[in-house]
Amino acid sequence: MSAAREPLITARKLTKRFGELVAVDGIDFDVARGEAFGFLGPNGAGKTSAMRMIGCVSPPTAGELRVIGLDPATNGPEIRGRLGVVPQQDTLDDALTVRENIIVYGRYFGLSRATSARRADELLEFAQLTDRAGSVVEPLSGGMKRRLTIARALVNDPEVLLLDEPTTGLDPQARHVLWDRLFRLKRQGVTLVLTTHYMDEAEQLCDRLVVMDAGKIVAEGSPRQLIDAYSTREVLELRFEADDHAPYAPKVSGLAERVEVLPDRLLLYTDDGDGTASAVYDRGLQPLSLLARRSTLEDVFLHLTGRTLVD
Amino acid sequence: MNQAAMLESHAQKQPREGRMWRRPLIHYLVSYRRNWRGTAISGFLVPLMFLGVMGYLLGPLVDRGTGGGIDGVEYVAFVAPGLLAAQAMQAAVGESTFPVLAGIKWRRFYHAMLATPLGVRDIVLGHLVFVTVRIALTSTVFLVVAFALGAIRSPWAVLALPVAVLCGLAFATAVFAYSARQTDGQGFAVLFRFAVMPLFLFSGTFFPMTQLPGWLQPVAWSTPLAHGIDLSRDLSLGTPTATEAMVHVGFMLLWLIAGLALAEWSLRHRMVR
């Protein structure tokens, strides 16, 4: 059998409509076993709707979807029994303890009390929450709650972990702790599917990703491939003493392959940031600040949609 | 790893929706064990305070009146079974308002449940079984205290316990359906003020239904509370008749079943989109 080669999740012309609103507009994608796959896009791009369909809690309006080889329309409970879900908004029971939250969740899957309790202890260790096991959830920090939500989602030893905006609202340090845990899971062979509107998160975690905008997939590939295909190696950011940067665009024309005008700065796409910087000074321009950096997925998104990811 | 193999076997096949209600019930019981003190005052003490005030402070005045109690029944014996059914209704409504919207919106634990093999029907049934446990507990305490105080007149009163529970459940399902359609707690204030409170006052808890103006009587008889109270009272006084009992039970069952269908439909409409 080629079961291992077969994609774990496949979607063809997958569509979700809410009345007039088309949240997901006929998207195609495959997720292979063991990979970390991301949906990158701004708020409202349809990422969460796609995730909810994969998680078998929201029936597709049209198109085809297979998760672990099964049809969500007929095998929802079986599929959900093999998924782990980390929703965007925490769904922990604040009034229960950290450990009770995992045990109770294990029981939802039909695990025995003993199995749930044993899993809870293992997972608390994994989530670095063992010393908080007996405390009530309510006063925990955002990062701890997120780690608990992830630990809880692993109680059934899922084949796929779905993470919707896993680090939104966390401080940088808490994000790094969380990313480290997710790397470990990936190394253990858990397939990760995540949505994010943070390009650094997508770059850190995803082997492959699709860029979504207005319900459609506008590009697909590894972070490196996407940057190579849709951006230059480097970017030179220029800030001028002005409320409107558009008038400066003609003054730098010809200095870069492409120029993007943002309200507060100009982005010059070039393969040699420092070289372009000296060319800017040679033209007699006096930017307030000037920064040469590598291209990121943010630049890919800007190029593809003309908009920034985080507004 | 044999543990993985065991988890695997769990994962392969899940029971049909509606047969997994024990799983959310476990959550509610764990939660209740931790938090029951918070509901102890309203659940256990308030009904007993009513029994004390109405039965033993107001009651003697009624008993000294021209009728000598109510149709010859000492007032405390009249009011105790009424309060039994009425507190069951109040507890059931209480458990089916804020906690339901908490599951949907505030604590969002219904979302967590639906991300697992559980379905909407399991959530609704698990909730109802929990409400059953919850009302059975408070009703038992109430009955035992009322018995100890001499307010119960017949061993038939043991059956007033399931009657009170049935009465509460008949409200729980309909109120669940109502709660599943709310966006905030405002609708609950309306429910308590314009449904629960009038029912408590006008369904025969404190006086016989015949005291009501004629036009109001059919209105009062149209909800499960009047039936629950009437049957509890017949049992507690030792005067039940089979046909009347069947009508009362049948009426409450009808509400229960219709409410159940409505509750499931409302929650599905709200959660599965």
What does this structure look like?
The complex is a heterodimer of chains A (311) and B (273). Chain A is α/β, with parallel strands linked by helices and 311 residues long. Chain A contains ten helices and 13 strands. In chain A, the strands form three sheets. Chain A has a six-stranded mixed β-sheet with strand order 5-6-7-3-8-9, sandwiched between helices. In chain A, α3 (98-108) runs parallel beside α5, α5 packs parallel to α6 and α8 (223-230) packs across α10 (297-305). The mean pLDDT of chain A is 93. With 273 residues, chain B is mostly helical. The chains are: A alpha/beta (311), B mainly alpha (273).
List its salient traits:
heterodimer; A: 311 residues; alpha/beta; 33% helix; 26% strand; B: 273 residues; mainly alpha; 11 helices; 75% helix; elongated
Provide a short characterization of the protein structure.
The complex is a heterodimer of chains A (311) and B (273). Chain A has 311 residues and is α/β, with parallel strands linked by helices. Chain A has 10 helices and 13 strands.
Low-confidence stretches of chain A: none
Encode the helix/strand succession of chain B as letters. Answer: HHHHHHHHHHH
Cα distance, first to last residue of chain B? 38 Å
Helix share of residues of chain A?
A: 25-40%
Task: Quote the average pLDDT of chain A.
Answer: 93
Provide the structure class of chain A.
alpha/beta
